[in-house]
Amino acid sequence: MQIVAGVDLGGTSINYTFLDLQEQFLIDRLCEYPARAKEGPDICMAQIVDGLVAAAKEAGVSLDDVAVVGLDSPGPASAAGVLSQRGSTNFIHLGWCGFDIPGRLSRQLGKPVTYLNDGNAGALWGHFVLFGGHSKATSVSAIIGTGLGGGVIAEGNVVKGRSGYGGELGHVLIPHERIPAIRSLQPQCNCGRLGDLESLCSLTAIEKCLLPFFLTKYPEHPLAQVSDITRAARRVRGLAEDGDAMCREIFRVQAQALGLFFDLMVNTFDPDALIVGGGALETKPEFQRWFLEEVRAAMPTQREEQASIPIHVMPNGDTAGARGAAIEALQCLRLS
Ligand SMILES: [Zn+2]
C-alpha cells in the first residue's frame, strides 16, 4: 500500500493526517502533537518525527507505506520552505532564521517532503473539497483569522510565486473608499500598507481599526466598558451572530471589503469558485449565509457570464492545513 502524510507545523502544535491514493483521509479527527518551536529547530524537528510515528500508530498505518510527506507552516518562507533570514513570529528562536524545514525533515525521514505555506495549504484543501484531486479548476480562498490568509489554485496548481509570496491575499490593496460606513477611516495594516484586505478583514482589523472606530459611534455599547481591546475584539463575532447592531456593522464592513477583493479576483482569474474560511465563519449556518450574501451584495456588477461564480464556506477549519499539505504530497507522488 502507498499513502502520503500531511504535517501541519504551527508555533505551538503539529497536526497530522494520512491520505491514500483513492483520496480517502485515514484520520477523521484532529491528530495533534506539541511543536515546541520556541525551543529551536533541533527539538522541534524531533517532535515532528515523534508525532508522525504516534499519528501513524493511531491511524493504524505503517510509516514504511508513506511515499511522500507534505509539510505546511506559517511563513514567511521561500516557495521551497526555507524560513526567512529575518525570522518569523511563529519561529522566534534564532536557529530558525534561514532554516530549511522540508530539507531537514526529508533527511530525517529518508523520504521526499513537499512544502506549502499554511495559507496555500488551507486553500488547496478548500479547492479539493469542491473539485477533488484531479481537477483543472481555478479557485480563490480567503481565510479570515488573526490575519487574512488564503491562496489561489489556478487550473489545479497552487500559485506559490517566485519567492513564496504567491497567494498573499491579505496585502492586496482594495478600493476601501467605496465602503460607505468607513469613508473617514484610514485602515492601516501591520505590513505597513494602507487599505489592503487584511487591514479591514481580520481579527487584527477588528481590534486595531474597526472596533475603536465603531465605538466612537456607539459610545454606550457594552464593549466600550471592556478595558482590554483584544478581549473586546474577540467578542465581536459572537455578538454579531446574536444580532448586535454595532457588531453586525463591523462584520458587514468585513464582508464588503471581501466583496471588493473578490471582484478583483473574478476579473483576474475568472475562477470556478470563491471560498471563504477561517475563524470568522466558525458560526451557525444562518450567520454564514448572511455574511456571504453581504459579500455578494458588495461586489460591483459583473458581466453576465461571471455573475454566477459561486461563493462557498470552507469546511473543517482545524484540519485544513494538514489535509492541504497531504493533497500537495499526493499530487507530487502522482507526478513522480
Ligand atoms: Zn497588509
Task: Looking at this protein, list some descriptive labels.
single chain; 336 residues; alpha/beta; five-stranded mixed β-sheet; 8 helices; 37% helix; binds zinc ion
Structure description:
Helix 3 packs across helix 8 and helix 6 crosses helix 7 (285-298). Strands 3-2-1-4-5 form a five-stranded mixed sheet. The protein has a five-stranded mixed sheet with strand order 8-7-6-9-10. Helix content is 37%, strand content 16%. By secondary structure, the chain is α/β, with parallel strands linked by helices. The protein has eight helices and ten strands. The structure holds zinc ion. Zinc ion is lined by residues 170-171, 189, 191, 193, 196, 198-199. Zinc ion binds next to loops.
